[in-house]
Amino acid sequence: xxxxxxxxxxxxxxxxxxxxxxxxxxxxxxxxxxxxxxxxxxxxxxxxxxxxxxxxxxxxxxxxxxxxxxxxxxxxxxxxxxxxxxxxxxxxxxxxxxxxxxxxxxxxxxxxxxxxxxxxxxxxxxxxxxxxxxxxxxxxxxxxxxxxxxxxxxxx
Length: 156
What we know:
The protein is mainly β and about 160 residues long.
């Protein structure tokens, strides 16, 4: 008897070592993410964050790994992303990470043992200002259908 076929997923690989433009499509959060212990250390459960990218020329989204949600000077989130994308970034600063959503970026990827990860990320234009505000949404107003709004604008 043969074992049942395992579910396999095909992943869209990006070009390694080249500058690839795109946008940060979404910042994803997980309040109780389990991080595997390193060299015999116990696993820890902590808030985590990762970025979802829409890269130019690629059909599927690409993601960073889950990172501890911390702006500590030695954290990967701060060193690799916040310090590169936020104007005047400082460790442990008061900053809303959602301000990076829709930011135009350039990325450089690497591959180790079949796993791809970001080597570097740069803003494609200005860095985000830490005092910028997220667009306010009036929850009392019904959403506007943009296709109707554009048609109505032409009528005048």
